[in-house]
Design a protein that fits this description.
With 476 residues, the chain is mostly helical. It has 22 helices and two strands. The chain has helices at residues 3-9, 27-61, 66-69, 71-78, 80-94, 97-120, 124-151, 158-183, 189-216, 224-234, 247-268, 270-277, 283-307, 313-331, 336-350, 353-361, 369-378, 382-397, 399-402, 404-422, 424-434, 457-469; strands spanning 446-447, 452-453. It has a two-stranded antiparallel sheet. It starts with a helix and ends in a 7-residue tail after the last helix.
């Protein structure tokens, strides 16, 4: 194969009117692409965990308030909707998943390298700008990776699949605070800042190498035609309505905003909470306690994935999010080991909420899947809103009392968990996918040139041509 043929075989553009086998992948066929994309989940888990540790580190070294230190979270998560509703979603719809993965990794690497001179200059504003670029890259990755994991493989196991992949996100959040406790808090301020620089050098190099790995890899693209086929096969039939009438989707996006904001706020001020309620603790020990709590978070995802084999994911979601509300409430007034233990329990039950909102919110979107994923991931911008509010409350009333802020947002997110279990318009599409047989018995042989199943060519051709001729699609 010549260079020209090699580059052509790695084309990043895919037509959304072309149906491939991607909607019918079996468990075995989906293992490699899922494993490759799962590496991305670890990456942004590590980045997110590192951010929570840096929040306290910059309070110490730059002598800034808790509210101002939340500028890191505001910059990081505020960039998400710019990606998920803007540039990343455009690339996803016009080129495909692989191109979006590479674009997100490129932005992540650029942001990491820009952070280095900002750290040297002790510029908090500059570092926040670099973090915004990192957040834009990670927002791009999440815009593509979450829906990709959800639809890559049998739809019956979507929630289980995304929770297992997201568990590696949790592992990243465990490693980052441990690293931070040794390289940020056990040295003088000058040495600690130098260590932060080397961490971002390593991140930048790694993500550029990973972007090249995605360029070389042949992973199945999932088109709008694939998703329309999957929706029809599962009889969810939710994509026959216009996009702006997908009310379940927008409720899921609002729930994601509230839930993610609460989760990020708790993690961001966990170290502060421990320092204020455990008088004997140090910043380093509090960072290690955060790592332990994040370990419970990761364990919760594996546990939740196991339970979902036997209980409908929507019920597991309702129980876990309700538990978050129940256990965060007493942490507002409790101190010492009791308060910290309650936060450990909260992080355990937070575990499956984010990915399950993604999976349930995307049920039955069919040809609207790519646009819909952008809205749900845009909900992550709650992480830019709730932590600053919590920081203001912490500066004025203490970090313990400030936990009332994430409590309020947990309660708001709970409305979606209730709706998806008790409102038929929400519940029925979710259950239709839970009983689907697509991908469990293989798929039809496909004509690679036409991208259409030989068996279904006659009765599906008209449907695919309709998708192709829609104004908002074409080669979107």
């Amino acid at each position: 194969m010549g260079l020209k043929d090699f580059i052509r075989s790695r084309s990043l553009r895919v037509k959304d009117s072309k149906r491939t086998k991607a909607a019918e992948l079996t468990l075995r066929e989906s293992l490699y692409p899922i494993a490759l994309v799962t590496v991305l989940f670890f990456l942004w888990g590590f980045s997110y965990g590192l951010l929570d540790t840096l929040n306290k580190h910059f309070q110490n070294t730059l002598h800034i308030t808790k509210a101002r230190s939340a500028g890191l979270q505001a910059a990081y998560f505020g960039a998400y909707p710019l990606a998920s509703l803007g540039h990343a979603n455009w690339i996803l719809r016009h080129y495909g998943y692989r191109a979006t993965f590479m674009w997100g990794l490129f932005l992540y690497g650029i942001g990491a390298f820009i952070a280095i001179p900002c750290i040297k200059a002790h510029s908090f504003a500059g570092f926040c700008s670099a973090i915004a670029i990192v957040g834009s890259g990670l927002g791009s990755l999440e815009t593509a990776a979450n829906p990709y994991i959800t639809v890559c493989g049998p739809p019956k196991y979507s929630e289980i699949r995304i929770n297992i992949s997201q568990a590696f996100n949790g592992i990243g959040t465990v490693i980052a605070p441990v690293l931070g406790s040794y390289v940020f808090f056990t040295f003088n301020d000058t040495t600690a800042l130098e260590n932060v620089q080397w961490v971002y050098v390593a991140i930048g190099i790694f993500v550029f190498l990973l972007a090249f790995a995605f360029f070389l890899s042949k992973i199945p693209e999932i088109t709008d035609a694939d998703m329309a086929f999957q929706a029809s096969e599962t009889h969810a039939n939710a994509d026959d309505k216009p996009f702006w009438k997908q009310y379940r989707l927008f409720h899921a996006a609002a729930a994601q905003f509230c839930y993610t904001g609460a989760q990020v706020a708790i993690a961001s001020y966990f170290i502060n909470y421990v320092r204020e309620t455990q008088t004997w603790s140090t910043d380093a020990s509090a960072a290690r306690f955060l790592s332990g709590a994040q370990g419970g978070f990761a364990a919760g995802r594996f546990f939740g994935s196991f339970v979902m084999n036997y209980i409908r994911p929507r019920w597991v979601f309702l129980v876990f999010l309700t538990a978050c509300v129940i256990f965060i409430a007493p942490a507002i007034t409790q101190e010492g080991w009791t308060g910290m233990s309650l936060l450990y329990v909260v992080l355990f039950f937070e575990s499956i909420c984010f990915p399950t909102i993604v999976a349930l919110g995307m049920r039955g979107l069919g040809k609207h899947t790519k646009r819909g994923s952008g809205w749900i991931i845009a909900g992550v911008s709650g992480g830019a809103v709730v932590p600053p509010l919590t920081g203001v409350a912490a500066d004025n009333h203490g970090t313990g009392r400030a936990m009332a802020v994430p409590l309020a947002f947990f309660i708001a997110a709970l409305s979606y968990a209730v709706a998806v279990n008790f409102v038929p318009a929400y519940r029925n599409p979710a259950d239709a996918f839970s009983t689907a047989e697509v991908g469990l018995t293989g798929h039809d042989n496909l004509d690679e040139e036409k991208g259409i199943s030989e068996k279904m060519a006659d009765d599906k051709l008209g449907e695919i041509e309709d998708i192709s001729s829609a104004p908002e699609k074409g080669t979107v």
